[in-house]
Amino acid sequence: MAADANSIILHQYDVSPFSEKVRVVLGLKKLEWYACDEPVIMPKPELVALTGGYRKIPVMQIGADIYCATQIIIRELERRFPSPSIFVGGDKGLGWGTAMWTDRVFFQAAVAIIFGGGTALADEAFIKDREKLTGRPFDIAAMKQAAPLMAEQFRAQLGWIDDQLADGRAFLMGERAGLADASVFYNLAFIRWTSPAGAKLIAAWPRVAEWEARVAAIGHGTRHEIAREAALDIARAATSTEEPRADTGEPNGLKPGDRVSVMADDYGRDPIMGELVSSSAQHIAIRRADPRVGEVVVHFPRAGFLVMKA
Ligand SMILES: N[C@@H](CCC(=O)N[C@@H](CS)C(=O)NCC(=O)O)C(=O)O
């Protein structure tokens, strides 16, 4: 089956932990989607043509709408495909807060364990690329030194997961898997793919490992593959479905039509410029054009991203 303007295209790579979070959500919702493999390091000319400068992975494309970062990707999947929901009960707000923990504190502990333990992923080109991404030295020797401390941090957080499962529930929020499971799981998957020492830390918590196996069994939905050029062709032929929407509570008075720039507040802070189409407390959409993809609308979360009037 060929992809079209309604297809879910995930710009990703297989060893990308944040992509795994989205793949689990695609599995939960039993969705059909297209994997568009992107390079692990820059340059990523096709991706940047779509996003206007955002280079991180994953990015979701549906026609000429481009969603940057897992928070807005998953929010959009929930909006378009509400059933089954990623919310299990009692987690509609704090589910997102859980993701902020797993994407930052928990993820950084995993990163230090993986790269401090020595992994084939970190060749010279990779290290140079990640230094550019973060604006800081990617210091393997320092990570090696920090690895024992980070093992302690990682273990403490595994303990929270174990406590959450202590009443015998199958998944973190109850009997059904949801956003919290996807958010926690991808960090453990990243460790499993890359770090035998990290995998040992997980093995010390059998209840966590059993839960992990249940999440893995959910799968990734139905995956097809698509080439990067074909994904660009779809964007060029499509029109964004995003409607202009005023945001009455916008703290800085931004309104549709304003020229703005959007950037991540952590790493990969390349600003993306465009004309504001719609915004809310959780979402901002900007329109921009590129010769290879025509006019597209690029979507970002608000939490974790900074918006400035251009
Ligand atoms: N906040 C972002 C984080 C994404 C992220 O850090 N992705 C990693 C890969 S898993 C990345 O982009 N690394 C740099 C690269 O691949 O170029 C999200 O939720 O999607």
Describe what you observe in this structure.
The protein is α/β, with parallel strands linked by helices and 310 residues long. The chain folds into 2 domains: 9-84 and 223-309, Glutaredoxin; 94-218, Up-down Bundle (Glutathione S-transferase Yfyf (Class Pi), Chain A, domain 2). It contains 10 helices and 10 strands. The protein has helices spanning 17-28, 45-51, 70-80, 94-116, 124-134, 140-164, 179-194, 196-203, 206-218, 228-237, and strands at residues 9-12, 32-37, 59-62, 65-68, 222-225, 259-264, 272-279, 283-290, 294-301, 305-309. The chain has a 10-stranded mixed sheet with strand order 5-2-1-3-4-9-8-7-6-10, sandwiched between helices. Strand 1, helix 1 and strand 2 (32-37) form a beta-alpha-beta unit. Helix 7 crosses helix 8 (196-203). The N and C termini lie far apart (42 Å). The mean pLDDT is 97. Bound molecules: glutathione. Glutathione binds next to helix 1 and helix 3.
Summarize the structure.
By secondary structure, the protein is an alpha/beta fold. The chain folds into two domains: about 10-85 and about 225-310, Glutaredoxin (3-Layer(aba) Sandwich); about 95-220, Glutathione S-transferase Yfyf (Class Pi), Chain A, domain 2 (Up-down Bundle), CATH 1.20.1050. It has ten helices and ten strands.
Which structural traits does this protein have?
alpha/beta, Glutaredoxin, Glutathione S-transferase Yfyf (Class Pi), Chain A, domain 2, ten-stranded mixed β-sheet, 44% helix, binds glutathione
